[in-house]
């Protein structure tokens, strides 16, 4: 038999951890003469508000036991949820066992995800794993032909409108709410299984699940013909998804992607740092004694590309820096915090989005990241690879100076955030030329050199800043030609992973050119 469309509601079961909107919903049910069953704290909250309620224990004839672990796992509850009203044997069983139908289930789950965000204590988290709630939700969602299920207070208002206007819910609404409920229980189980795998040290377990809650539909994806939305997971890593947006129009798909890349880059550095990003690649990065100096230096590295870019910083956004940033058309500014003066300055540019995260992400975090592929997804740990001066292997006759070593490490960290193949020239802890995303490492080097030359011409300098600068390569040089391109541009020192079959030839080329070169033993591919 086809599912009936409009179903009246005579009997409801309410059992919620999140009491948001509970009383308004319960009053609407009582005003429609709907019987309310409830449990524990929910029943107490309803009675305190003067709302008549029947305890589930009175229906089942069995008390809540084991500290509330067992209360709704009973045939008189699950029979009322799962019974098909169009099957004679189901109806006969209900009559025989004195089971009454439940037409509405309102359940939200123990706050496991919120608890996980504040503690990693095993005993505390185990007690926040809901059993009866998911069981009831799945039962009601499965049987949505004949009952309505609400797992989210955000849906109460729509339900109340349907109840007051039509006396019940139509099939389309019940089906949509059921689909949302299965997604909610899946996300809940995903959070639990992810925590348990992590607790066991299984970063890449045999089975895994991805879950997120949609925070907004985006206007479109990378291009106008693509659909897009933003979902948040249970992770609390500071960044674009957790930030508070103070002003500006909604972020686009590309804004979000680029802002994430920018903020992750500046999180690599301890000193005040600013990064300007276009299409997920940095066009200017600088570290300095203060943000304003870092901004001026980063902007000077490639002012043409910086127009319409994303700006990220790892310090509180101050008034002096805000005044400097305001002179350039910028899509997004993201910072851990901002002074009121900086906020007021940015308010004069109402289309600019200002995001404050409250904190910086942990650069040592090696948690798992995912990327979709046809038919599945890839998983890998976040690139948390770090090196220090003591980790470097000096492989040339010329030994880099302290200043060169500082610049080499700076350039090396920037390459980590440039799409491969990547070449970065740096001087005085500022990028001076970046070659990104090329099929050939030689081409990446040539583009970095050309960008530096174009910038010099833009500023009217007599020579590009690659002369005397250091250079970094995200992976080894398979041949000496890539290194020679850097030498021809004036590089005085080079940092690269090493590990090529032709390392000896590359080292010989560096010695012949009289430059310093160091190996990291670590690469930073970024696709």
Describe the structure.
The chain has 527 residues and is of the alpha/beta class. It has three domains: 193 residues, Methylglyoxal synthase-like domain (Rossmann fold), CATH 3.40.50; 142 residues, AICAR transformylase, duplication domain (Cytidine Deaminase, domain 2), CATH 3.40.140.20; 132 residues, AICAR transformylase, duplication domain (Cytidine Deaminase, domain 2). The chain is 38% helix and 19% strand. It contains 19 helices and 23 strands. The strands form six sheets. Strands 10-15-14-13-11-12 form a six-stranded mixed beta sheet, sandwiched between helices. Strands 18-23-22-21-19-20 form a six-stranded mixed beta sheet, sandwiched between helices. A hairpin with a 2-residue loop joins strand 16 and strand 17. Helix 4 packs parallel to helix 8. The longest helix has 29 residues. The radius of gyration is 30 Å and the shape is elongated. The two termini are 53 Å apart.
């Amino acid at each position: 038999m086809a599912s009936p469309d409009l179903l009246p509601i005579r009997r409801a079961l309410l059992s919620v951890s999140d009491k948001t909107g509970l009383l308004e919903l319960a009053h609407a049910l009582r005003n429609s003469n709907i019987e309310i069953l409830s449990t524990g704290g929910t029943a107490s909250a309803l009675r305190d508000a003067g709302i008549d309620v029947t305890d589930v224990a009175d229906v089942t004839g069995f008390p809540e036991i084991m500290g509330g672990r067992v209360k709704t796992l009973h045939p008189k509850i699950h029979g009322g949820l799962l019974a098909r009203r169009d099957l004679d044997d189901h109806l006969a069983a209900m009559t025989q066992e004195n089971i009454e139908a439940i037409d509405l289930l309102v359940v939200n789950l123990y706050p496991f995800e919120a608890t996980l965000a504040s503690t990693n204590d095993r005993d505390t988290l185990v007690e926040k794993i809901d059993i009866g709630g998911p069981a009831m939700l799945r039962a009601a969602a499965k049987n949505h032909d004949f009952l309505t299920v609400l797992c989210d207070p955000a849906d109460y208002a729509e339900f109340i409108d349907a109840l007051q206007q039509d006396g019940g819910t139509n099939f389309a609404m019940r089906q949509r709410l059921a689909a949302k409920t299965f997604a909610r229980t899946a996300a809940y189980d995903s959070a639990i299984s992810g925590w348990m795998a992590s607790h066991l040290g299984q970063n890449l377990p045999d089975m895994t699940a991805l879950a997120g809650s949609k925070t907004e539909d985006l206007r479109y994806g990378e291009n106008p013909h693509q659909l897009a939305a933003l979902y948040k997971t249970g992770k609390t890593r500071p960044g674009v998804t957790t930030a508070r947006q103070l002003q500006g129009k909604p972020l686009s798909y590309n804004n979000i992607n680029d802002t994430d890349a920018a903020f992750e880059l500046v999180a690599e550095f301890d000193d005040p740092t600013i990064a300007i990003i276009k299409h997920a690649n940095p066009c200017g990065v600088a570290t300095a004694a203060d943000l304003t100096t870092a901004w001026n230096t980063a902007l000077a590295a490639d002012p043409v590309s910086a127009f319409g870019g994303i700006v990220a910083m790892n310090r509180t956004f101050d008034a002096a820096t805000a005044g400097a940033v305001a002179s350039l058309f910028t899509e997004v500014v993201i910072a851990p915090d901002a002074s009121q003066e900086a906020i007021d300055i940015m308010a004069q540019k109402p289309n600019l989005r200002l995001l404050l995260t409250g904190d910086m992400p942990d650069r040592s975090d090696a948690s798992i990241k995912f990327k979709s592929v046809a038919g599945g997804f890839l998983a890998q740990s976040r690139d948390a690879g770090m090196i220090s001066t003591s980790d470097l292997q000096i492989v040339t006759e010329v030994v880099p100076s302290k200043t060169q070593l500082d610049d080499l490490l700076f350039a090396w960290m920037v390459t980590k955030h440039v799409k491969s193949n990547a070449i970065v020239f740096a001087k005085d802890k500022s990028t001076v030329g970046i070659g990104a995303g090329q099929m050939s490492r030689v081409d990446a080097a040539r583009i970095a050199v050309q960008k530096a030359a174009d910038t010099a011409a833009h500023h009217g300098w007599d020579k590009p800043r690659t002369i005397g600068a250091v250079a970094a390569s995200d992976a080894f040089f398979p041949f000496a030609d890539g290194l020679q391109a850097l030498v021809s541009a004036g590089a005085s020192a080079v940092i690269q992973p090493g590990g090529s079959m032709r390392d000896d030839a590359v080292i010989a080329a560096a010695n012949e050119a009289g430059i310093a070169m160091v190996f990291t033993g670590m690469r930073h591919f970024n696709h």
